[in-house]
Amino acid sequence: ARQLIEEGNVIKVIVDTVMELLSEHLDANHRFHFQGYNSDKFFRIQVIFHDLRYILISKPSVWTEELRTQFLEGFRVFLGLLHCMQGMEEVKRQFGQHIEVEPEWEAGFSIQRQLRHILVMFQDWCSSDETVLLLSFKECHRALMRCNNQPFQSEATDYYMCKHILHVSPYKVSQEPVSIHLPISRALAGEENHTVHRAVYVLQESCDFTWFAEHPLRCVVLAAQVSAEMWRRNGLSLVSQVYYYHNVKCRDEMFDKDVIMLQIAASTMDPNHFIMLILQRFELFDVFNGSLASKDQELLKQWNRLTEEMLYLLIIIVGERYVPGISHVTKEDVMMREVIHLLCIQPMAHSSLVKGLPENESHETGLETVIPKVATFKKPGVSGHGLYEVKKECLPEFNPFFFHYSKSQHSKAEDAQKKRRTQEGNDKALRPPVPPPFCPAFSSIVRLLCCDILIHILRRLLQRAVEDRATYWTEAMIQRVPFASLALFLGLLEEKAQLEASTVEQVSFDFSLKARSELIGSEHGKSVFHLLSKMTALPSLEAQKDMIKWTLQMFEMVKCLREKSSPAASMSIVPDKDKAERKRKAEAAKLHRQKIMAQMSAMQKNFIESHKMLYDNMPEKSLIIYSSLPSSTSKLCVAVGPQRGSTPAEREVLTCILCQEEQEVQARSPAMVLTACVQRSTVLTQCRGKTLANNETLYPLFMPPDLAVGTHTGSCGHVMHATCWQNENAELVGQLLTLPRWIQILSARIKGLKSVTQGPGKDSCVISQSNLSGESPVKYSDSIAEMLVVCATTVHRVGLQTGPNELCPAVPVMSWNTCAFTIQAIENLLQEEDKTLFCSLQNRQLAGLKAVVQFSATQRLKSSQAVIQKSSTRSGYNQPFSVCCQVGLVLAIPALYQEEAVDLQPSAVSSAYNHLYILHLVTMAHMVQVLLSSTDDTAVSGGEEGEEGEAERAAAELYAAVSQCTGGSVADRVRRGVMPFLRCAALFFNCLTGVPPPEELSSTTGRYFRALCSYLALPCDVFQLFQEHRGTVSPLLQRWCGHPAVTKALKGEIYPRKRNRLIELPEDYSALLNRASHFQCPNSTDDERKHPTLCLFCGTILCSQSTCCHSQLDGEEVGACTAHAATCGAGVGMFLRIRECEMVLMASKTRGSTYPAPYLDDYGETDPQLGRGNPLHLCPERYRKLHQLWQQHCILEEIARSLEVVNVMFAFEWQML
Predict the structure, then answer these.
(1) Would you say residue 578 lies in a domain?
(2) In sequence order, what are the beta bridge partners of 389?
(3) pLDDT (tens digit, 9 = 90+) per residue, 645-670?
(4) Are residues 1041 and 1075 in the same domain?
(5) Which residues, listed in sequence order, are joined to residue 167 by a DSSP beta bridge?
(6) Half-sphere exposure for 347 (CA within 13 Å, toward CB)
(7) d(Cα 217, Cα 240) in Å, to the nearest integer?
């Protein structure tokens, strides 16, 4: 690059090319005006600047004469480009009406952003050689003098204040044209910051620094007036320009350089003249001179806002010294200060910090070098990001007037730090830190703090506050004054430092004396110190009282230093008094609270005594606390059979979330419903990807053992009116009714029903009603009956993917099917998370499950009894018994009590025995299934005669020996296999009968199996069921086990069933990228790999968003992921887009959303689109959360939640994914 500069003068060539392309945008004043520019052509021009950045990427360590000559020539040409930008696109305040057409502003800021790093690189080149630095400084000065937008258009005028005269030309930003683009002025400020001090001395005699400060001061005033809403008729274009003026993307070469230029002017000008100039440009000179008054509230509001901004600018000029060259600080110190103030707002993620910091020419912020010194990293949980928190020892560096804060950031930071100090037991005074001393060339800036004009300004503001005239001051304005405004604070601090370093006679800085003086600036003769003391009694400034007291303490400290007394002794009195006062107030508040609580307690006792009759007649609400049940009542914790415990008689009153009306839940009351989400699910499938048979051949009551697809019903637990939703003697019976007798009666009833449907025959049998005792069924209101139909048809439509049909025989059966599957899904989730069965469910899960069970139980009352009877008497129990079969039998048995002329339901005793014997039969059948599905034939084989018998016995002995060594046995395997079924049965009967479970079931250890059997009225040794009912069960087992269909269905089955999990992902994301790079689309002939997408259910990589893999689904063209989700997840999908590093959740062909990937970088953040490029690693907690999202059937809920948050104008075509 240096060779190209020396031999080819490449800087001049590049800049000339840019100027040639931009020449068409020059106006009559030879300044750029980009209205109506071509964006494509303009983009090409911006690309050329990358060549210039490459040329300047490395500054030389050794300069040759030829390099100096060519570089300076190129720098002059570059200043010509800046000359065309100086003052371009001027704006003038709009009066009367709003601007009609928004002016173009993006192009100018685009060039400004491209030149941002180039300007810094030019300054670095110049600062590397003293000769080049001096010559470039003079060239920059000449270029500024040649600019045709001269600062003054009229003759200079004298302005008087406090016996000081300012001779300057009048100019009002609110009335004259002003531009925010001042690249030459800012380049000069940057050059001066690198210039040796003799260059400043050479220019001091011939330069008017008032002229240097004019344009930067106008920009600052323009931003202040925009903030005061004086330019609101100029539209959003000006607001956007001011935003970028302060934004991190542009501020280092715009706002920061303007501040440096103002500091340069403040260091060379008379301090009184400098502040008078600021007052004049802020159009506040007459306000503080006492010659202007108004009753216009809008104008007063503007003056107040401008006064705040003016004071803030003075704080910045005097207090912001963290710039190399302004004070003795390094770039690392500057970066540490930036990071500390960002983290004082709130803990931030690494990416948020990077966005809030300026980048250098290499797109680096330097964050990694300073962050360990100022912050600690807090690792992320299952959601959110890893956060950096500022170290406690760095908190004293917080400055509430940090000049890079926006107004919202300032408020957040101040609130956060006050809250922290309150929690620590400290006062709310946010004391600014001690700034580093100025370099000698800028040390005269501190003279601003003790000049007459500033004392006058502070006195006028404090006097308005003491007089409590709210129209002339704001709390934000006063906040800066007692906070020392950095004027009071820095003035006192500067004086204190000088007094500690020198004798009183040698110190000329007399800020405290002027602040105590009563002779300056007012006819009342009251000092700043006196006014500040009176402010402590103002109730309107209660929030600032701590800061005011602290400022007064600083006054006393400086006074003690001047009088050569001990400041420590005098300063310790006030804090001790304040501490004692706070302690006294805290104790008084504590006694007051105790007194109030005692009064409330006495009033409650008096009320109860006076209304004792009311309390005696009031029925108590039955509440059963499981942990307090005595051991003698453990027999009540039985959910099945004649020994079933009593259901708590609890009056249930619910509140509709829509109309907020309360209603008691009763059978004859209007229906109260829960919102339900019905969806097909493959969470429990044992054969993922299996193609389902025709729906007409399936019978939902007998779910296949592989659980290929189920219908899950969940609820959010919100209760509402149905109308609102549409608009928005048991022992004696037990001795007689044994299991054989129960089976005999049931069989006879079934034969009788068949004879009715098939016609009379010789095998027909009619039994009396006395065999099955019954009673009249519960009658429900029309509203409840209507909602039963709505819910049943929804489950039928979703589960079988068919049209709504209330008369379909499968409607009640599908209700039982979804009830059973939902119970199994919940049990599977609790078992996997190792949670207890009854105490771990969320309220919404428990409410939803109870509603599903009760809905399924009452479904027979609305459905055709003939249809239910046909389902109950359906022959062909050749499928494996499951939870679905048990639920169907329990809920369908009451239909056997119905006849044409008699509408009955089983009595409580009959229901108890029905539940008991159905559970016994299905439990024994399930145990047999576990044995039949076992691969260890030797475990159950019997002895035979001859050699085969000897071999069988030897094998059995070997198996017994191995089982003894390993601790496993047939009984243990059966118990493990039957445990999920028993847990599901316990959940089902708990929701059906309402009998509370025993205390032992609240734990997963100890006597859990025994307590579970006791709750279900089963013997603790479940094998005793076969011993007790040997004669009855043996014929059933022979017929059932000998059926070939049963053997075929149980082939390959393993109990307990395996729990499905998401696939295992590699720990390093680069392994996934490598796998995706080897993926070839099977349907594409080219080498393009499109968008490889990984299914987390089965691990298949698909070619998404590509026409080559489109297929037909229900007569509609869909993408590969949508088609795969239909077979792999019953329409639900969870995919990882590998190249984009983001998740895609799908719930149907037309509904989906994106979701953060479970891969995080070292800072605990995701990297969507792989934009940052940091190494990514798998976060087990987040992947576990994804797994829970799937297992809990919450994918659809998550998609709905994301759609509420993200609003897009054009919907994404999820079916083409």
Answers:
(1) no
(2) 376
(3) 777 767 788 888 777 788 888 777 88
(4) no
(5) 158
(6) 16
(7) 19
Predicted structure pTM score: 0.71
Q: Which of 656, 668, 629, 636 lies closest to 778, judged by CA? A: 668
- The span from the CA of 364 to the CA of 362, in Å, is 5
DSSP E strands: which ranges in 363-516?
A: 375-378, 387-390
Q: How far is it, in rounded angstroms, from Cα 980 to Cα 823?
A: 11
Residues 926 and 1009 in one domain: yes
Same domain, 1087 and 1167: yes
The count of structural domains within the chain is 5
Residue 25: closest CA among 15, 34, 16: 34
Residues 965 and 1106 in one domain: no
Q: Which residues contact 754 (CB under 8 A, 6 or more apart)?
A: 873
CA distance 709 to 691: 10
- Residue identified by tokens 């983290």 is 343
1096 exposure class (CB count in 10 Å sphere: 0-12, 13-18, 19+): buried
- Read off the DSSP letter of residue 927: H
123 touches 139 (CB < 8 A): no
Do 93 and 207 fall within a single domain?
Answer: yes
Asked whether the bond before 1019 is cis by omega within 30 degrees of 0, the reply is: no
Domain range holding 793? 774-935+948-1050
Express each pLDDT in 698-751 by its tens digit: 556 556 666 778 788 888 778 888 877 766 645 555 566 677 777 777 777 666
Residue whose pair of structure tokens reads 């959360």 in the numeric block: 1185
Same domain (yes/no): 520, 469: yes
Classify residue 800 by burial, with Cβ atoms within 10 Å: 0-12, 13-18, 19+.
Answer: buried
Integer Cα distance of 786 and 792 in angstroms: 10
**What's the CA gap between 1147 and 997, in Å, rounded?**
36
Which of the 8 DSSP states describes residue 686?
Answer: S
Q: Is residue 593 part of a domain?
A: no
Boundary residue ending a domain (1006, 1022, 1050): 1050
Q: What is the pLDDT of residues 1016-1041, one digit of tens each?
A: 888 888 888 888 877 787 887 777 77
User: Are 146 and 231 members of one domain?
Assistant: yes
CA 885 – CA 921 distance, rounded (Å): 11
Nearest to 862 by CA among 797, 803, 781, 804: 781
| 748-789 tens-digit pLDDT | 766 665 554 444 433 333 333 334 455 556 777 888 888 888
pLDDT digits (tens, 9 = 90+) for 441-463: 888 888 888 888 888 888 888 77
Q: How far apart are CA 407 and CA 413, in angstroms?
A: 10
Domain shared by 857 and 981, yes or no: yes
Length of the chain: 1217
Q: Two tokens at 441? A: 């060339």
Cα 1100 to Cα 1093: distance, rounded to the nearest angstrom: 8
- For residue 975, tell me if it sits in a domain: yes
d(CA 574, CA 570) in angstroms, rounded, equals 8
Any domain includes 254: yes
Cα dihedral: 1068, 1072, 1078, 1083 (round 10)? 180
Please answer whether residues 377 and 386 qualify as being in contact, where contact means their C-beta atoms are separated by less than 8 angstroms.
Answer: yes
CB-CB contact of 343 with 388 (8 Å): yes
Mark which of 246, 265, 284 sits at the end of a domain.
265
